[in-house]
Amino acid sequence: MSDTRRQPTDDPGRRVIDQRLRNRVIEYLELASSFEQQRDYAKNVPMVNVPYEVINQWEDWVPAAPVRTADQLGVYSDPEVAAMMKFQAAWEQAADGLPDTYPSISEAQRLPVWLNLREEAECALAVFLTRGTMPEDHELVWT
Questions:
Q1: Of 7, 94, 113, 124, which shows the fewest CB atoms inside 10 Å?
Q2: Strand ranges for the chain from DSSP E
Q3: What is the CB-side half-sphere exposure of residue 65 using CA atoms within 13 A?
């Protein structure tokens, strides 16, 4: 005889996962927009090449073409999607313009594409901070 009662699950659901990912995007934009945070990261984690970490983290948190899908309504606002798309263009330029020689953070921060990346991250972050972070333990519905 099988037990048909529902067991509690640790699965947070797609919406909560999307909210968590949105919060990671905000954290990423904080790092990308702050040369000071980037230098601190390099100092505190010397085995990591911070310029490449900044490039790779964006791909960790954001799809290749940021768009607002029907199941993400309220997770990302229209202005946030537009900000991600604008930042994506600066990110692509920085990814293409970063030397393959694993430059130090101080070398990267002198590159025009890295300066632009920081500026665009700062602009995108300002858009995201209008609403701020979302809960990571329950759904929040914003329209």
A1: 7
A2: none
A3: 1
pTM of the model: 0.86
Using the 8-state DSSP alphabet, how is residue 6 labeled?
Answer: P
56: which residues sit within 8 A by CB, 6+ positions away? none
Helix axes 35-44, 50-61, angle to 10 degrees: 110
Residue listed under structure tokens 């919406």: 15
CB within 8 Å of 134: residues ≥ 6 apart? 19, 22, 23, 75, 140
The one-letter amino acid code at 14 reads: R
Phi and psi for 73 in degrees, rounded to 5?
Answer: -55, 125
Q: In residues, how long is the chain? A: 143
Residue type, 26: I
Q: Which of 63, 114, 53, 108 is nearest to 88 (CA)?
A: 63
The CA distances from residue 116 to 19, 23, 47, in Å, are: 27, 23, 26
Tell me the per-residue pLDDT of 40-98, one tens digit each, with 9 for 90 and over.
999 999 999 999 999 999 998 886 666 666 556 678 888 998 999 999 999 999 999 99
